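User: Good morning. I'm curious how flavin mononucleotide would be positioned relative to this chain. Could you predict the structure with it bound?
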Amino acid sequence: MKKIAVYASNIGVAKGVCEKIAPQLGIEKVVDVKDFALKDLQDFDKILLVVSTHVVGEIQKDFNAQIDDFKDLDLTDKTVALVTLGNGVTNSDTFNDALGELYDICEDCDATLVGHSDPSEYTYDNTASIRNGVFPGLALDVDNEAHLTDSRIEKWLETGVKSAF
Ligand SMILES: Cc1cc2nc3c(=O)[nH]c(=O)nc-3n(C[C@H](O)[C@H](O)[C@H](O)COP(=O)(O)O)c2cc1C
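Assistant: Good morning! Here's the predicted structure, ligand included:
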């Protein structure tokens, strides 16, 4: 069973979160998307993606630079768990928008997506990331609610993530 965690981070917040979660899922290979070709994700069975939201609701730039490669990716029978970072105060209208976009992209690749979090447990005005009434992954706001990060990770791990990895 090949496992990988890929993070996309501007100043290291997503990196730190990725390094915290990966061992809890038995993932030893943790890479910066700058050093990894996303088209190679299909060589792995269990995939953790940790990506921050930037510039008005967009996926972090280094990840976005390779986003077109998902068009040719087949993630059938691959388990994917998503974590995104956002800021519910300074970016309250595009809160964690990267999550919904990542979810749609991975779903188009036929990935088996696992894990969710409850949008009512966060402080923000708007988000484009609600799917079927939930955040389809772990949304985090380390900038304003760092004290909730560990408990949010713990809760999310129990929404089918730990058992799937
Ligand atoms: C220029 C800039 C734009 C941002 N845009 C958004 C946004 O649209 N939505 C959001 O939820 N967070 C936004 N954020 C907040 C970041 O996602 C958050 O600070 C995150 O923790 C950064 O993680 P990183 O250091 O791993 O990139 C933005 C931050 C910056 C600096």
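Residues 9-14, 52-57, 60, 85-87, 91, 94-97, 142-143 surround flavin mononucleotide (CB under 6 Å). The radius of gyration is 14 Å.
Let me know if you'd like a different ligand tried.
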